[in-house]
């Protein structure tokens, strides 16, 4: 995607979602979960699965925008772009966890298998038992052909085929065999289609909504996200609410860029976490255990709410440094390498044609 296609507030929204995933993981360690009573208020904001659904909506929108503006792009080129965007950081993080497990017995969440083949499968995002949060990236990989074909289908036949596929995927989201088909939760897969539809249909919607009424769109999106967070994680209704809420937020950001409600997404700190959001998402669980160990004496004097919130703040701050290093030393070079290879491939194709 070219710089002219870049929407900073979408990146910021991804950063907010990544931080809230960390807040969610800190909360489940100390507060009653599944949420009930006052803990519902915490998980309304720290809506972990909802944040992942928002990731998917953003990805669908951004990738559809990129594909739609390209004069022509093959699926192999699109898949290569996705691979160089996602795999370098995942390979590095799984490699780091493998080293830490071998050297110190360290692992995050439940201890996965560190056999060589399983490590390789985790690096390639085919499995996600070494760093559990990477399940969403397995779904991102699985969604690559769906996104590509959906953009092609919209160009030829409009929104009807996408709505039909989304309806089928929504129905399947209640079927356990489908949800666990690839070892990762496929239930929110239709959220990518929501993002694609926002890209194509957003301008039409914007023309039919007055500027005054448009202020209610992000408000409704946030309200749906908060309400969904108080429901049972993995529930079909919750995922649908998060999908609609995320789509409304992306719609508001892309079509009404001057809305006051979205201005916090321009704050420098929010922009910073937006830039490092992918690495932060991969690395935040690695910082939780050290933070707990260092603050054990302090945490024991706090109530569960205070402990969860304090751990959230400390984890968010502690994860920023390694995430920034991963972003600059691994993510960016990986993206640039993919672009260079794409350029070389283009030169080769032109030479063959001549």
TrEMBL record:
GO CC, alphabetical: membrane
GO molecular function: acyltransferase activity, transferring groups other than amino-acyl groups
Gene Ontology biological process: polysaccharide biosynthetic process
Domain of life (superkingdom): Bacteria
Ranges annotated as spanning the membrane: 12-31, 43-64, 85-110, 130-148, 160-176, 182-201, 213-231, 237-257, 278-299, 305-330
Keywords attached to this entry: Acyltransferase, Membrane, Transferase, Transmembrane, Transmembrane helix
Residues in Acyltransferase domain copies: 9-321
UniProt-recorded name of the protein: Acyltransferase family protein
Provenance organism: Bradyrhizobium cajani
């Amino acid at each position: 995607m070219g710089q002219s296609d870049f929407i900073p507030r979408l990146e910021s929204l991804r950063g907010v979602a990544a931080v809230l995933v960390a807040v969610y993981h800190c909360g489940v360690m100390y507060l009653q979960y599944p949420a009930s009573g006052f803990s519902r208020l915490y998980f309304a904001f720290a809506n972990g699965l909802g944040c992942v659904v928002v990731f998917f909506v953003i990805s669908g929108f951004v990738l559809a925008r990129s594909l739609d503006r390209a004069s022509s792009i093959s699926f192999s080129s699109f898949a290569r772009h996705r691979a160089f965007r996602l795999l370098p950081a995942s390979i590095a993080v799984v490699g780091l966890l493998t080293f830490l497990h071998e050297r110190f017995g360290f692992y995050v969440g439940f201890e996965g298998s560190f056999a060589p083949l399983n490590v390789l499968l985790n690096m390639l995002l085919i499995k996600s038992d070494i760093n559990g949060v990477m399940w969403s990236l397995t779904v991102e990989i699985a969604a690559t052909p769906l996104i590509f074909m959906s953009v092609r289908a919209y160009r030829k036949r409009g929104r009807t085929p996408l709505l039909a596929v989304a309806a089928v995927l929504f129905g399947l989201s209640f079927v356990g065999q489908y949800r666990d088909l690839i070892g990762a939760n496929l239930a929110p897969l239709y959220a990518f289609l929501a993002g694609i539809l926002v890209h194509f249909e957003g301008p039409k919607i914007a023309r039919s909504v007055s500027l005054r009424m448009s202020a209610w769109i992000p408000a409704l999106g946030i309200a749906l996200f908060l309400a969904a967070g108080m429901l049972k994680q993995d529930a079909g209704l919750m995922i649908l609410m998060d999908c609609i809420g995320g789509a409304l937020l992306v719609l508001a950001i892309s079509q009404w860029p001057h809305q006051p409600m979205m201005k916090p997404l321009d704050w420098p700190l929010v922009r910073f976490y937006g830039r490092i959001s992918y690495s932060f998402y991969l690395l935040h669980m690695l910082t939780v255990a050290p933070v707990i160990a260092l603050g054990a004496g302090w945490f024991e004097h706090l109530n569960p709410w205070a402990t969860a919130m304090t751990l959230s703040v400390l984890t968010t701050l502690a994860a920023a440094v390694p995430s920034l290093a991963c972003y600059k030393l691994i993510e960016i070079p990986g993206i640039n390498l993919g672009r260079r290879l794409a350029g070389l491939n283009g030169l080769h194709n032109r030479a063959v044609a001549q």
